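note to self: dont lose this again. the chain is below, predicted strucutre after it. 212 aa total, dont forget to put it in the shared folder this time
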Amino acid sequence: MCYSFSNKKVDLKEVAKELDAENYESDYVQEDNVSAFTRPAMPIVLEHNGRKITHGTWGLYAEIPKDKPAKGLNLTAENTHTYYKKFENNRCVIPISGFYDFQHVTIPGKKTPAKVKHEVFWKDADHMYLAGFFDVWENNEIGVGIVTTAANELMSVIHNSKMRMPICLDARMADRFLKDEPIEEFVFPAFDPELVAMNLEPEKMPPPTLFG
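---
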């Protein structure tokens, strides 16, 4: 994913109800375009003395090197038991409306592909959840990294530069993820989320040819 999503229309009362979570806080960052690089205090759901909705800062680590601004934002699921072993049982989910990604499209006569922005949703639903690992920093703030997996058929077309996608969950699978079921149960192709996409920049697509 391209380090941004929408969560402005997420109803946290509905999230609390379907995940049986308590919410004691307010002033979450809920916007049409939440960018990882602004380190937003977004709403997350985690297990800590009960299941709660709380603030999480996008970025697993409190300190991010200037030469590696994306470090800890997205976490590769295949490294769960090695590089992220310290965090693999620190489970959280991030409620979102949809996330953004760019399709690289070849334009006749141009050397550089066009980057066409898409928004990806859960089919026939107004929200979904992204899987995350978290850490509690020394100042008691919570840092969150979003866990990614190999792209499914849809995301192989959209995120065709890297063939990756975040682990996307409905409420049933989000509940299972929070219960520490093995990460292998949630990665593609073991689990294939019901995603659909909207092209937000159709004017960037090349014109159709005689053969389609």
